What does this fold into?
Amino acid sequence: MIKIALDGPGGAGKSSLAKALAKAYQFVYVDTGALYRTVGLYVRRRETDPHDEDAVAALLPDITLTMDFVAGEQHIYLCGEDVGDQIRTPEMSLYASAVSALPPVRQFLLQTQRRIAQRHHVVMDGRDIGTVIFPDADVKIFLTARPEDRAQRRYLELRAKGMDVSYEQVLSEMLLRDRNDSGRSIAPLKPAPDAVILDNTGFEPAETFAAACAIIDQKLGKHYVRQTR
It folds into this structure.
């Protein structure tokens, strides 16, 4: 099975790009960040400190986390509940960053991610896909952009969903998550040695998509041809 790993910081556009790539190449899209956000949501609902490894680990046996794909869209179910936009808030970004630094949580989700890739060609986005989850990925792209650009994109996305946030709040929380993700001792955010760095500062989505396709087409050669219609 072919594996495309798409890593990078928040707000770089990983999810949108991964969805577009999965559709173009007819692969399955897997948003691993959503898995960590969902664990974070459960921790938040249980009023548990997301930095307390023992307390969070004690909750994991109670979590039933499943994924389904409906018309190519990934749905995450927490104990049978489709959590949807509940996991897309700035608060859940920080919870996801905190729980993702805990070894028990990473081990809890690792096999879920790998099982999916055993059954499907996948485009998987996250922060350690090319370094930890799939170090043998066929294509590794590290997508990044200036923090100000990333914050503006996330701000507009959240406002479009009706969330009452400010640009300054989004930027501040994004910079905090960048520091947390890059500085953690386990699976820190960093490009894999063989990843292609794609800086999409100032890019429109179509430009990012075209640049990513060029990288993938070069890496895969004639093994897989994307759909152009």
